[in-house]
Amino acid sequence: MMERSYFYYNVLDSTMLEYQRLREYNNGTICVRTDYQGDGVGRDNHNWLSPTGGLWFTFDIVFSGFVSSFGLYTGYCLHRELCRLFYPLADKLQIKWTNDIIYDGKKLGGVLCKSHPGRYTIGIGLNTNNDIDSSLGKFGAVSLKNILNTNISNEQLCFSLIDAVERNVRLLSHEITYITYCNENLFGKNCKALIDVGTEPFEAEILGIDLKGALIVRKGMGEIINLSSGSILSIEAFS
Ligand code: BTN
């Protein structure tokens, strides 16, 4: 197997964009990491705030085929690895469908996955050593530094997370393993949520995730539907 090429920058527009540029003249697998992104990209083309100190990186894995629950697979790998490395966090660390990492109800990190012929590209943003200022705070973010009261090595964490995604790849043909795990650690389960599927947001109770990675929800009139795409805008306790 060809060794991965690592690229590190102090400042970038976005590691997703730099990955695309580097892809033009690199054949093997790549990891691009930066300390700061001026134009970070989130899901649904949202802007992703990426202040200095956080862990912002994009890498790829060789994989043929398309797995609809790939995002949950990455959420599973990240959640498990973070629980292993930072054991005291485990009680309050959850996975928000499709693949956000939540700590005590606040967003610790997000993941952007893209399928290409023969490979997946994965962009990970984790609030690690960055402060949560008012602009991040209004999105309900939290950082590892807030939780642990110490800084961690972004470089080491980047290596560990890539390793976790690579070494579990065989599970992509045993979806039940990571879907079960995601269901056990699902943020907002049995709660009422505001859900966006691209039309008018609606309220529904989150019931779980099905074997294809779709979110199972119960709407107001009792109708149960499985959502293969969309996002959870907010959660409130189910009364
Ligand atoms: C989300 O919307 O929750 C996904 C956010 C993904 C952000 C990461 S940070 C590293 C990589 N570069 C980007 O511009 N975006 C992803």
The average pLDDT score comes to: 94
- The tally of beta strands, per DSSP, is 12
Q: Please identify the structural class as seen in this structure.
A: alpha+beta
- Tell me which ligands are bound: biotin
Poorly predicted tracts of residues = none
Q: Span between N and C termini?
A: 53 Å
Estimate the helix proportion, in percent.
10-25%
Strand content: 25-35%
Radius of gyration: 17 Å
Encode the helix/strand succession as letters.
EHEEHEEEEHHHHEEEEE
The quaternary organization reads as single chain
Largest sheet, in brief, is: 7 strands, mixed
Number of helices: 6
Question: In words, what does this structure look like?
Answer:
- The protein is of the alpha+beta class and 239 residues long.
- Helix content is 24%, strand content 33%.
- The protein contains 6 helices and 12 strands.
- It has helices spanning 15-23, 70-85, 134-137, 144-148, 154-167, 175-184, and strands at residues 5-12, 30-37, 55-62, 93-96, 100-103, 106-116, 119-126, 192-196, 202-209, 215-219, 224-227, 231-236.
- It has a 7-stranded mixed β-sheet, sandwiched between helices. A 5-stranded antiparallel β-sheet has the order 11-10-9-8-12.
- The longest helix has 16 residues, at 70-85.
- It is globular and about 55 Å long.
- It starts with a strand and ends with a strand.
- The model has no long low-confidence stretch (mean pLDDT 94).
- The protein binds biotin (BTN).
- Residues 14-16, 37, 40-43, 46, 48, 50, 56-58, 100, 110-112, 123-125 line the site of biotin (BTN).
